[in-house]
Structure formats: structure tokens, C-alpha cells
């Protein structure tokens, strides 16, 4: 293998639920399990934007430049991913949000990229339900949760960012509807479409993409940022907190440090343009400066 970092010409290929990438001498290589899930704009397993996610494009680059491992891609839901990351077998998740609880069991990479933070989605016909909690086009989440008047859909074991997670942890349980399935956001959107769940949290590109997969119109939905939450959410890779996991993170950071500066930005641009084309809202570019490592 050459020492030139392989970005151009590598196609994102998360095609099967478990795929092996072998290189010369890989029979004796340590197995590294990559844990992925369908989570636009990071990874897209189905629909019109299949394999166009930011991690869809990045993961083959990491694999190509880490030939010392036997790479396995495994599709899991968020709860299963966290369970495996707390084990002893070498596993890495390339699309993680940092929080204090996870950092006890997971070692994190350098920041990979920034996403617009999670927000609240609601059917436009139901916007009056949250009107008392909307100020300057953002939702006062603590007030909404304290009122216990509107159900909020969540994905089990998912982090929505440190600030939002803190508000959810303080919330009464009654207004929270937690979904544990493999396609939780898709199921929550279907419940919302049927009028059984007023609101849910997620990334706007994620909600748009999932709505398309299920034949639902995202134009029928309104999306609100969360008042007080950071505008952007940093995404990291995380591995099992073992000597092998620490070594894998060192290797991942080496690859990330050699990527062309515009490589990830080009993948992000695709989603900014898709956002604008889908509903006409203005989308500012994502921050150029990377957030600091936790």
C-alpha cells in the first residue's frame, strides 16, 4: 500500500450489514468492528440519498488507511452500539456525540466535523401545541417538559448533546416517549404522521431523509432549534476504552490529521444543498473552526 492518503476515488460502500475488508497479511490482523446505524446526514442506508452520508464517505477512507486491522462493518442501533463499546472486544463507532457518562467507557478521537444541533419537529397543523413555549423561533425545552402537556419522542440511549441531555434527565417521565427499535426515528415519524405523537427530537436532515424513506412530506413539518443549546454539535469517533481501543483511536487520529481540509466539507455541502432544495430555508455553512477535544 502506498503512503499517499486515499481519499479521492474511494466510494462509500456500506452495502451489507457486515462487510469484511482484507488486506495483504490481514489474516493475522486484529479485528476492528465498526458500529454504524442509519442516521442522516452521517450514514444513510436506504432511500434516495443512500450511501451519501458524511460518514458513508469517510469510513472507507479510514479503512483504506488502516490496513493493520481486519475491518468489519456491523449495523446496530444506538443501544447495542453503546453496549458493545462498553465491552472488551475492539469496536469503534465513527458517529458519536461526547458526554461525561460515555467518556467513562469510551475513548474519543479528535473532532471529525460539526452538525447543526438536534431540534424539535412537529406537524405544522399542531404548532399551536408548542406556541406557549416558542420564543424567537426556538423552543424552551425545560418549560415544555415541565408543563407535561405535549409528548416528546426520543430514541433510546441516544445523546442529543450535553445541554439537551441535561434537560431531559431533569424531566418528568410522563412527557417522554422513548423508542427502543432499530429504526426509531422512522417509527416516531410514522406515529407523528398518524397523530399519535406531537413532537420528536432529531437532526433536521435526519428527519427530512427519514420522512422521504417512508413517503412522508417533510414540508408538513416545522423544525425548531432548542433555546439555550449550542447551535452546533461535534461528532467524534469512539472506541472501547482498552489498550487496543486507545491504539485504534491513535490510528484514526493519524488518518484524520492527513485528510485534505476540504474532504469532509464537500460531503457536508451536499447536505446543506439538499436542505435548501427541500424546503427553501437558508442554511449557513457549517463552522470552519473545529471544536476543542473534550
CATH topology name of the largest domain: D-Maltodextrin-Binding Protein, domain 2
Write down how many β-strands occur, each being a DSSP E stretch of 2 or more residues. Answer: 14
Biggest sheet details: 7 strands, mixed
The overall pLDDT, averaged over residues, is 85
Ends apart, CA distance between termini: 33 Å
InterPro entries: CHP02285
Protein name: TIGR02285 family protein
Organism: Pseudomonas helleri
Give an account of the 3D structure.
It is a single chain. With 294 residues, the protein is of the alpha/beta class. It folds into 2 domains: 18-115 and 234-279, 3-Layer(aba) Sandwich (D-Maltodextrin-Binding Protein, domain 2), CATH 3.40.190.10; 118-225, D-Maltodextrin-Binding Protein, domain 2. The protein contains 9 helices and 14 strands. The strands form 3 sheets. Strands 1, 2, 3, 4, 5, 6 and 14 form a 7-stranded mixed beta sheet that branches. It has a 5-stranded mixed beta sheet with strand order 11-10-12-7-13. A two-stranded antiparallel sheet has the order 8-9. β8 (134-135) and β9 form a beta hairpin. α6 crosses α7 (204-213). The chain is globular.
Amino acid at each position: 500500500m502506498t503512503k499517499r492518503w486515499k481519499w479521492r476515488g474511494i466510494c462509500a460502500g456500506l452495502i451489507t450489514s457486515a462487510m469484511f475488508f482484507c488486506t495483504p497479511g490481514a489474516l493475522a490482523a486484529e479485528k476492528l468492528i465498526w458500529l454504524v446505524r442509519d442516521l442522516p446526514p452521517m450514514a444513510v442506508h436506504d432511500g434516495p440519498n443512500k450511501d451519501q452520508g458524511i460518514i458513508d464517505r469517510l469510513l472507507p477512507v479510514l479503512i483504506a488507511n488502516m490496513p493493520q486491522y481486519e475491518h468489519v462493518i456491523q449495523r446496530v442501533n444506538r443501544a447495542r452500539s453503546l453496549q458493545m463499546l462498553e465491552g472488551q472486544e475492539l469496536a469503534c463507532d465513527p458517529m458519536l456525540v461526547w458526554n461525561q457518562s460515555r467518556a467513562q467507557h469510551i475513548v474519543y478521537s479528535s473532532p471529525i466535523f460539526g452538525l447543526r444541533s438536534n431540534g424539535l419537529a412537529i406537524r405544522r397543523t399542531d404548532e399551536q401545541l408548542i406556541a406557549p413555549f416558542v420564543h424567537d423561533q426556538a423552543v424552551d425545552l425545560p418549560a415544555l417538559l415541565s408543563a407535561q402537556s405535549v409528548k416528546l419522542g426520543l430514541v433510546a440511549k441516544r445523546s442529543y448533546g450535553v445541554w439537551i441531555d441535561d434537560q431531559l434527565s431533569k424531566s418528568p417521565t410522563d412527557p417522554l416517549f422513548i423508542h427502543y427499535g432499530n429504526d426509531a426515528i422512522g417509527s416516531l415519524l410514522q406515529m407523528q404522521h398518524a397523530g399519535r405523537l406531537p413532537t420528536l427530537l432529531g437532526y433536521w436532515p435526519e428527519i427530512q431523509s427519514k420522512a422521504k424513506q417512508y413517503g412522508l412530506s417533510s414540508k408538513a413539518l416545522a423544525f425548531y432549534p432548542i433555546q439555550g443549546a449550542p447551535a452546533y454539535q461535534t461528532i467524534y469517533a469512539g472506541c472501547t476504552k482498552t489498550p487496543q481501543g486507545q491504539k485504534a483511536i491513535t490510528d484514526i487520529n493519524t488518518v484524520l490529521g492527513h485528510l485534505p481540509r476540504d474532504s469532509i466539507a464537500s460531503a457536508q455541502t451536499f447536505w446543506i444543498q439538499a436542505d435548501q432544495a427541500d424546503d427553501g430555508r437558508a442554511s449557513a455553512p457549517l463552522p470552519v473552526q473545529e471544536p476543542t477535544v473534550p
